[in-house]
Design a protein that fits this description.
single chain, 79 residues, alpha+beta, 10% strand
Length: 79
């Protein structure tokens, strides 16, 4: 399911915690792309909302959810 992703960023590598803007700034610098190129998946709604405020696509995922379906709906995976 994660094959389409070029980079996976973590709070550890960013030296910033979600939902701090510095986390999203770091990840965007790593990919060298626009906010529209970023998709954030997390289990905490507050973190997903922070990603959306940063201009990213945000997906709230909980175990048992259809992550592939959510990624298709976001345009990450082909329909």
């Amino acid at each position: 399911v994660l094959a389409p992703f070029v980079h996976l960023c973590t709070s550890f590598t960013a030296a910033a915690r979600k939902p701090e803007p510095a986390f999203f700034d770091h990840c965007q610098r790593v990919i060298g792309g626009d906010a529209r190129d970023c998709v954030f998946v997390d289990d905490l709604p507050a973190n997903v909302e922070a990603a959306r405020r940063h201009g990213w696509e945000g997906i709230c995922y909980r175990p048992g959810d259809d992550l592939a379906g959510k990624l298709r709906a976001a345009g990450v995976l082909p329909g």
